[in-house]
Each structure stands twice: as C-alpha cells, then as structure tokens.
Amino acid sequence: MKAPIHKNIESQVRTVTIQELKAPHFDPNWHFHPHYQLFTVLEGTGKRLIGDSVQTFGPGDTVFLGPDVPHLWRSDAAYFDTGSSLLTHGVVLYFQEDFLGKDFLDKPEMLALKQLLLDSKRGIEYKGELRSHIRSELMSIMHSEGFQTIIQLLTLLDKLAHETGGSPISSYGYVNTYKVSETERMHKVHNYVLQHFSQEIRLGDVASLAGMTEAAFCRYFKARSNKTFIDFVNEIRIGHACKLLLEDKWTIAQIAYDSGFDSLSNFNRNFKRYIGHTPREYKGNY
User: Fold this and answer.
1) pLDDT, tens digit (0-9, with 9 covering 90-100), for 88-110
2) Domain 197-285 belongs to what architecture?
3) 159-191: buried (b, 16+ CB within 10 Å) or exposed (e) per residue?
4) Nearest to 30 by CA among 220, 222, 239, 190
5) Start and end of every HTH araC/xylS-type domain (predicted)?
6) Which option is the CATH number for 17-168: 2.60.120.10, 3.10.450.50, 2.40.240.50, 2.40.30.60?
C-alpha cells in the first residue's frame, strides 16, 4: 500500500495550489504533509479526524490546517457502497510558509499573519459569516491566475488574522509526534475503527493489526494521540450518535445500539461525559 504521506500537492506552475475535489468519497487515507491547507466541504458527510480531535462533518465544514497536522475526512460508509450514487465535493488550497520567500513573515507588518499561521498548527474551524466568506473566496481563487491568486490569498489570510470566528480544533499544546513511517500503521487502526465502530471492537484485534501487544499498543496510542484508544472509539461512536439524533428518524435506544454501545445506560453515561448533555437534551437543543 502506498504510504498516505505521499500526496500530489505541488504544482509546477503555481506557488499556490488549489484543487476542486469531486469523487464518490474523500481521500480515505490518514496523512500529514508540510503544507498549510485551507479546505471547505461543499457536499458530503462523515467523520473528521484532526490532530487529537474527532468530529463529524457535513456540507459547510471549513478548516485551516498548519503543516504536519495529521488529518482525515472519512466519508460515511454509504459513500463506499458499490453502486452508490452519493458524491463528495470540496475545495482545498495548499501553500508553504515560504511561498513568498523565507524572510516575508519576519516583516513587522506580518505579525498578525504570523500568529494566525502559528494558531493553525492546532487546526482552526470556521463558522458563521467568516466561513461563508472563506468559501466564496476559495471558489473565486479557483478561477484566478498568476499574481491575482497571490493577492486574493494574502487578502483572505489578512482577514482571518484580524477577525474572530475561528475556533481551535486540537487541544492546547498538541504536537504531532508521529513519524512518516508510522502513517500506514495508524491508517490501518483508524480505518478499522471507522469501519467497525457499530460492532464490538476487541483491543487484541486492533493491537494485532498494529503489530503490537495490547499493553504496548495502549501506551503507543495514548502517547501519539493524546487520548486512550477507548476514548478514541467512544468519540467516533458519540459523533455518529449526534448525527443520528439530529436526523430525528430513530429512537434514542435504536441510536445507542447502532452507534456500537452495548446498553442504553452505557450510551447515556458516555454521551453525557463527552457532550455535556443527555441525548434527549442534545436533541431538544438543536
């Protein structure tokens, strides 16, 4: 299997690379790269893994990531079904810190932009009017050429650096401790959990997949992910449950079992722990 880190990002003719993504599903490989990345989802739903954060995503999801932040937008299982008519659609923009030269950010006028780029190393999620502006600008940049592309990107980054509307994604102090050689191992683990979270997940099976003993895998996962493996699985399950609660098609008991919990009481307890509300309160609030 090709290592997920090796992605075709660089352009031979553009300093800033922007791509429109249309496919049956988003790239299912967990990976990281040395580029800044501004990404917006126009169509598609699933689970979003960024740093040590696990969330669901849908149309409108807009994120700015710094270099080497591990990430994955994993489309829901239905997008991988044979014969599925579902499609995903997104726009992604890549650039490197020195895209205007090595000393550009050292200028006094670049202080706010330098702070924005520093904040992006935790990942930044945008909502509200600022999110709408980013999406509009990305669509515009996609049809720009030459110097106009640079001007539009700098204007957008300046707006992001001076306006509120962005929230950090990963926890404070998060640092990627993975090596490039580990991407395939963690991809296997993430892929297994995302495919089987609605069923019983045995620690021994996952540890074997990673080529480790159970104890060694637990230590490894917590050191790299800043959370226990059980917490990771529960966050995936709770995120799925949140999505089903908002769809308002099933009872809370049905959602609990569909999300992989073995009892309604266990589901309610974990939901309150991770979300801060009971499932019924969450459904009522939204």
Assistant:
1) 999 999 998 888 878 888 888 88
2) Orthogonal Bundle (1.10)
3) ebbeeebbebbbeeebebebeeebbbbbbbbbb
4) 190
5) 187-285
6) 2.60.120.10
